[in-house]
Amino acid sequence: MAIRLVVTDMDNTLYSWIDYIVPAVEAMVDAVVEATGFPRIKVVQSLKNVYTKYESNEYPFALQESSIYAEFPEFASFDKLIIDPARTAFSAARKKYLKPYKGVVETLTALKEKRVIVVALTDAPRNPAQQRVKHMKLDGWLTALYTMPGFTFPEGPDGSKLVAPDILLKNERGAYEAACPAIELPREWEKPNPAGLKKILSTYGLQPHEVLVVGDSVKKDIGVARELGCHDAWAEYGTYVSHEYRERLDIISSSAITRRHAAHVFETGQQALKPTRALSNFAQVLELVDTL
Ligand SMILES: [Mg+2]
Predict the structure, then answer these.
(1) What gap in Å lies between CA 247 and CA 233, rounded to an integer?
(2) Residue 120 counted as domain residue
(3) Is 212 left (phi over 0), alpha (psi -120 to 50) or beta?
(4) Which end of the chain is more exposed for a tag (fewer CB within 10 A), N or C?
């Protein structure tokens, strides 16, 4: 058995990011519309501005940094009456829709039994990446997560933290951390920069031919694998997005964010790279590990 390490992308490779983020952000918007009485368009645009600034629509403190908060300058009541129902709505939708793709858990379990190391390499910021693997209980199967830098807590002009006290406490207790370590990579190492993969190879002391890279983005995931000479497998199953979801995503997410989480959405038409192999489900990784 030649493959000793599988480096997997996360969004739209282990689970459908789009199938969860669209209903979760929409549920949050609905909760804010209900709590404030503001028009939906105002709420959407206000949140989208913050998401664009942080290049993530999982920035957990979007509401207190948005122009909506500027209209309610006292944090404690804003937190209770607006942020709280919005958080609850987001979490409920996440619980319902964020699920690993079929075969992911079984495959990760089998890889662990075979003592093949599996690490995740994602362009998502650390905090939401940790939360997602924790939520789906994938952190027991992954040896480490390699992520983009995490978020810090927003502060008011007086230096006070604009975050609910229970979140601060939970954060201090490490309640948001996953069971496996998360390593923040420099922002410039976003894929297709191969530096993240290079660091992983040197950390585990492996040669490129011992490593299989799996991901849904030809440009990013297949790109880094090719650059370093690792085996590559394109998670083609992660690239099928319905036209309807694509439209709903465009309303709530800027293209820069969509590109980071679901780069494949923009990868239609002629590609400079051709993946060595395409997967119709994640379980095929197991066959590859045995045969490559
Ligand atoms: Mg992806």
Answers:
(1) 28
(2) yes
(3) beta
(4) N
What is the Cα–Cα distance from 100 to 136, expressed in whole angstroms? Answer: 7
Write down the pLDDT at residue 239.
Answer: 92
Domain count, the chain: 1
Q: Which tokens is 140 given? A: 């027991």
- pLDDT reported for residue 269: 60
CA of 262 to the centre of ligand 1 (A): 5
What is the domain range of residue 113?
A: 5-16+99-291
Report CA(232)–ligand 1 centroid distance (Å).
14
Cα separation of 78 and 69, whole Å?
A: 7
Residue spans of alpha helices (H) in 99-210:
104-113, 126-135, 165-172, 195-204
Residue ranges of the chain with per-residue pLDDT less than 50: none
Residue 124 CA to ligand 1 center (angstroms) comes to 9
What's the CA-to-centroid distance between 112 and ligand 1, angstroms?
Answer: 22
192 C-alpha vs ligand 1 centroid, how far in Å?
A: 12
In a domain, 170, yes or no: yes
For residue 221, the CA-to-ligand 1 centroid distance in Å is 8
Question: Is the whole-model pTM more than 0.85?
Answer: yes
What is residue 2's predicted lDDT score, i.e. its pLDDT? Answer: 86
196 CA to centre of ligand 1 in angstroms = 15
CATH code of residue 145: 3.40.50.1000
Domain annotation covers residue 153: yes
CA neighbours closer than 13 Å in the CB half-sphere of residue 12: 27
Establish if 58 belongs to a structural domain.
no
